[in-house]
Design brief:
By secondary structure, this protein is α/β, with parallel strands linked by helices. Helix content is 25%, strand content 31%. Helix 1 runs parallel beside helix 2, helix 1 packs across helix 7 and helix 3 runs antiparallel to helix 4. The relative contact order is 0.13. Belongs to the MnmA/TRMU family.
């Protein structure tokens, strides 16, 4: 089988490529150039896709004896991930750029090009498993990335391979060292890859500009002014620009954001509890819509934010009624539905959250 391996220059994708070679496949490595200024996208463990990363990936390919290429996807990445990220925050939402990158770049643009060139499958270093075409959690629960892959449809999963999902991360590093791969101890990337400074507010501010508004409490009292709703997320406690806690002495949190009026509402932590979710653009990883209401677990963040729920399709939306509340859920986040399974929790659907409410 001809397999294209997306090689980021990290240890995970390097071992994924090595395993594909071991299995006897015709393997080619590719590194995605996602920035028009690659020298600016890595600072230690922050960022990715730099010239340093491309060089690391090339050296691994040399050790493995496989062809290696760098493909320029910078324009596609800017349009489908960075611009989407900025516009989503400008609307008062909280997007996950890793989800969008998988949905629109790696398993859409990249996969489509791979298939057009005659490859049979795309392999990546994601921590997830595929079993009988079903997407499941990785063995290493702490590193599991099935959440950010939950937006893939059945066709995309049919031509995907996740070679390391059956192995804990420490074992992956040990394997890389045994193979003589120089990336064995390379730090994992953290935070948002295209914001290596880690200062999301400054990144957004430079692109959105100043859009002043007010921070108000539950009674409508103006507590402070701000330069734009992009500087806030639901559940945020610090950096609100207000003098202190509420009259009861309890801390205040961002409870809702009205981007049109520029109003940021703050209140008690109890106001963050969410009991139902509505999501648009649902994706069904099996290829078939939900057959009536289903019991499942809903996850709303890459790590954490998990609750049992009953989910169903209503019109063109996916609706989940939670059995216990989640806190700090915002529009723009992705909800991924899991069905508990003895062989590892199976992803059954996903959707982009449009409404996070207290009741149905």
């Amino acid at each position: 089988m001809r397999v294209l391996v997306a090689m980021s220059g990290g240890v995970d994708s390097s071992v994924a490529a090595a395993r594909m070679v071991d299995e006897g496949h015709d393997v080619v490595g590719v590194h995605l150039a996602l920035s028009s200024a690659p020298g600016t996208l890595r600072t230690g463990s922050r960022g990715c896709c730099s010239k340093e990363d491309a060089g690391d990936a090339r050296r691994v390919a040399d050790v493995l004896g496989i062809p290696f290429y760098v493909w320029d996807f910078a324009d596609r990445f800017k349009e489908d991930v960075i611009d989407d990220f900025v516009s989503s925050y400008a609307r008062g939402e909280t997007p996950n750029p890793c989800v969008r990158c998988n949905e629109r770049v790696k398993f859409s643009a990249l996969s489509e090009r791979a298939l057009a060139l005659g490859f049979d499958a795309l392999a990546t270093g994601h921590y997830a498993r595929l079993s009988d075409g079903r997407l499941r959690r990785a063995v290493d629960v702490d590193k599991d990335q099935s959440y950010v892959l939950g937006v893939l449809n059945a066709h995309q999963l049919e031509t995907s391979i996740f070679p390391i999902g059956d192995t804990p991360k420490p074992k992956i590093r040990e394997e890389a060292a045994r193979r003589g791969l120089a990336v064995a101890d390379k730090p994992d990337s953290h935070d948002i890859c295209f914001i290596p400074s880690g200062d999301t507010r400054a990144f957004l501010g430079a692109r959105i500009g100043i859009r002043r508004g007010a921070v108000v409490d539950a009674g409508g009292t103006v507590l402070a002014e701000h330069d734009g709703v992009h500087g806030f997320t639901i559940g945020q406690r610090k950096g609100l620009g207000i003098a202190g806690p509420g009259p009861d002495g309890r801390p205040r949190y961002v409870t809702s954001i009205d981007a049109k009026s520029g109003t940021v509402h703050v209140g008690d932590v109890s106001e963050l509890e969410v009991w139902h979710l509505v999501g648009g653009r649902p994706v069904f990883t099996s290829g078939s819509p939900l057959d009536g209401p289903v019991e499942c677990d809903v996850q709303v963040r890459a790590h954490g934010g998990l609750a049992p729920a009953m989910a169903e399709i209503r019109g063109h939306t996916l609706v989940a009624t939670l059995r216990k509340p989640l806190r700090g859920v915002a529009a723009g986040q992705t909800m991924v539905l899991y069905r508990p399974d003895p062989d590892g929790d199976e992803v059954i659907a996903s959707a982009t959250i449009t409404v996070a409410g207290h009741q149905c």
